[in-house]
Batch of 2 targets.
Target 1
Amino acid sequence: MNTIDTEYRLESSSEDEYVILKELLDAGESFVSGSLLSELLGVSRPAIWGKLEKLKSKGFDFEAVRNRGYRLIEVPDVLHPALLRYHQAKLGSTIGALYFPVIDSTNNEAERQYSHRRKGPFAVVSSCQTQGRGRLGRNWHSASAENLYLSVLFEPNIPPQQLQHFTLWAGIHICRKLQSFVPGADLRIKWPNDLFCEGRKFAGMLTEARMDADRINTIIFGIGINLNSNPMQYPEEIRRTATSLHAVHGKALDLNAVAAAVLYSVEKAYNNCIKGETKEALSQAWGPLSALDGKTVTAIMGDREITGTASGIDESGALLLQLPDGSTQAVRAGDVTLKK
Ligand code: BTN
């Protein structure tokens, strides 16, 4: 990808770095010969050594054994463009990702990149936001370098109806994919944009679209995931309601592998919606993942407040509430809280 001027530092990896890391990661515990690496890169053996030294300065470490070659013995536990690309390639995710160690908001940067003529689809990925934004004008706590913040910009140029369920489908795909990283935990989606585990929120989604009269020009899907952060260190106001995947799993997760899985899921959800190829019915896919079904919830719709039992979503994506008088109310937009 070409780069544009931005006030934030874009960190990229060279093609050589990617090729070296790919060979070593694919080899696992085995050694990769120096002659193979120099042949692949078309450079001398001492030049390979120089490139490995450079990778060491970024937190990688290698074992070098005469007549056998090199093997990878340490990978930094931070986002790294070559590692992200490696995991994306394994999954078949094709979205080019721009990595910023620090950014104001990945949604903002996606917008800036687009206004500087970067063509969608592309992703902006970071592990530290200084002005993370949530729904309804709220802040999104994003200071920890152990979390994941990413946005994907698409240029659909289609009528909005075709993408009206995009965020819900993205949530479904992401939730299923993340579940494979934390098999013992019970990941759920809280209508409409939150990912929950054991009654606490660990991720939130924010989709922002730019429209012409009857078409969506750009759609930016943003997600923040509390990955390896410690909830005890969260600000007071969210400490009791938020969690991280590390906290529920008991082990740190691979940031690059998770970022690739999320990019893959967003891409899949988008393509499904664009092609009208969602094989399952939305309400059926949603049911088993819903954090609300069967629970008493209060929905705030403008200046109205209604309390009822959540009973799934309809085909338009609205949340269905069974009210005490036996009627069903569809909640199309708004904020929903669980009654204790
Ligand atoms: C919410 O739960 O209110 C939605 C939170 C969305 C946060 C993500 S983090 C990546 C992207 N950039 C932002 O500024 N916001 C979204």
Target 2
Amino acid sequence: MNVGFIGLGIMGQPMALNLVKGGHTLAVYGRRAETVQPLEANGATACGSPRDVAAKSEITIVMVSDTPDVEQVILGENGVIHGARPGSVVVDMSTISPSATRAMAKKLAEKGIEMVDAPVSGGDIGAIQGTLSIMVGGKPEVFERVKPVLECVGKTIVHIGPNGAGQVAKACNQIVAGVTIQAVAEALTLARASGVDAGKVRDALLGGFAYSRILEVHGKRMLDRVYKPGFKAKLHQKDMAIVLREAHQLGLALPAAALVAQQFNAMVGAGEAELDNSGIIRVLERAAGRGMVEA
Ligand code: NAP
């Protein structure tokens, strides 16, 4: 199938490569040449704009950073909406606002273009391995059309409901991921401050009810103090802001999510926006003093 891919960052790059491996003809757009070259080397066609990508594609996938970026790529000058044919589908796999998603789906529908929101979980490792969990919002028949393409990048693919429902599921995912990462950071900080071997604490916890993939992957990054992203702190900060905005609109108290949002605010404010989200432990270490945080 002719598939388009826009946004070739930490996630987009390996996802696009998996689509080529899956036998699809790929048209790509990336803002920076160095992100496009590896795809071209694997047989993808580089395009000059999101509009050009959409003109070549039955399905156009978007994987950029934040809500304004998706709006620019889809609705902006030289955006997808100006190139996509009626009947084609836009699949937004970025994590963005559910309400903005519904509004974009409506604008695309006015031109006969279908849209599904299909945000993912599973991190850079899941993107490389093609094992992402994908949460889809949109019409059931459109979901069925895009499913074979999504199967090239993901393993668990769930149709949640209408447009925006996929993004709501992803917001739910980010509450669990965010609160867990904070819990792991607190546990390892307590171990270290007590003079106990934090690595052994993690080993023990991995075998009991405290097990989580986050304790495994992010816990290891915290132990090694290696914060190469991964998932940039500024993006998790953005996700917690989405969660709290939705909660605000609904008149809902989500106290643990609010706390995690503050920790990411502190991390980004300390100049660590580009570090992996496991670096959230550094906020606790700075507060703890006693030389716990490395420079
Ligand atoms: P990333 O490495 O920062 O990549 C984002 C890409 O989007 C970059 O290539 C960037 O271009 C491009 N981009 C941003 N704004 C753009 C715009 N206005 N026009 C054109 N291109 C634009 O981020 P990522 O980790 O791949 O994350 C992408 C999305 O997936 C985010 O919504 C994130 O929350 C979500 N996500 C990430 C993970 C993870 O573990 N990393 C997991 C699940 C979901 P430049 O290269 O020019 O900056």
